[in-house]
Amino acid sequence: MNFRSFSLFRSNRLATMLVAAACLLGAGVSHAERLKDLASIQGVRQNQLVGYGLAVGLDGSGDQTTQTPFTVQSVISMLQQLGVNLPSTSTSNMQLKNVAAVMVTTSLPAFAQPGQTLDVTVSSIGNAKSIRGGTLLMAPLKGADGQIYAIAQGNIVVGGAGASAAGSSTTINHLSVGRISAGATVERAVPSALGQGDMVNLELNDNDFSTASRVVEAVNKRFGFDTAVAQDGRVIRIRAPLGSGERVAFLGALENIDVTPSRVQAKVILNARTGSVVMNQAVTLDTCAVSHGNLSVVINAENSISQPGALSGGQTAANQNAQISISSAPGKVMYLKGGASLAEVVKALNAIGATPQDLLAILQAMKAAGSLRAELEII
């Protein structure tokens, strides 16, 4: 099997597995989920922090100071703050192979208090080859308002595997990014508006009027009438106790209420590079005909009559099924009968060797013609 055949086989197999998974998802029945998995409490959120610092102690893999002058400036500024004054003649010739300028990022969780530790990510912003084994010097971490909320410092850990043999070496990882576990200490708490007033806003993860109505119904059934009211398709106002202890217990019970969400909007995600197709539920297709190169896709409605058995008391009914025909080169045609679903079309296209570009063009044509009744997202 050559490389092209293997790549096509792997792409077809992957797409077939994804289509099968989509069929199972579409055929399943919605189950109840905890409210904490569907929504969040307004005001209970993370805050992004960022800072600038120096990673020292590198094994000759730091920044090339001739191309990253900000590294030299940072070292000079740091030494001056520590009481070390360098003559101007020596600063222009500094070769700092063991130092790298880095950015430090983390997220400040809700209700974080001074003294709490956070994990931080350290990323090189210069041309350092590696920051493995380096030590991050004390770096203040600021929020969007410019205030310092945490201080980071510690030994940088860069994971990965390396192997060497016969004078050659191979490294599997991105060596310019590392992590420091519990490397930052919170110095300032972010005030929260959770305890103000007798109303708490609940925000759904996705805007959905049906799910919002079901949440209101479930909350009022659990805590009594007029406890919850929907403001729109995302925000639900909840009447909560005023006391902090009672409010925490109330919100804990609120998060564990089981709610059956409504079926989400039909969506098809296509990866144009790999040809992977993911569907969040079964997507049906209307009558259409698409011709693309040597490929043709025709979806027709087919009437059928279902007649009940004798003395059964039923009625004769006319059903409208779909007939899908997909052809490629002359002499190779595949027919599919039954419900016209996108899963069957994608599976049949992969069976006759359609490329990801072919699949992308056909799905776009179906969407433009109004046959694909789903949101098409291409990544």
From TrEMBL:
Signal peptide (UniProt feature, chain positions): 1-32
Subunit structure as annotated in this protein's UniProt entry: The basal body constitutes a major portion of the flagellar organelle and consists of four rings (L,P,S, and M) mounted on a central rod.
Pfam families: FlgI
Keywords linked to the UniProt accession: Bacterial flagellum, Cell projection, Cilium, Flagellum, Signal
Gene: flgI
InterPro entries documented for this protein: Flag_FlgI (IPR001782)
Location of this chain's protein in the cell: Bacterial flagellum basal body
Family: Belongs to the FlgI family.
UniProt-recorded name of the protein: Flagellar P-ring protein
Presence of the UniProt keyword Chaperone in the record: no
Described function: Assembles around the rod to form the L-ring and probably protects the motor/basal body from shearing forces during rotation.
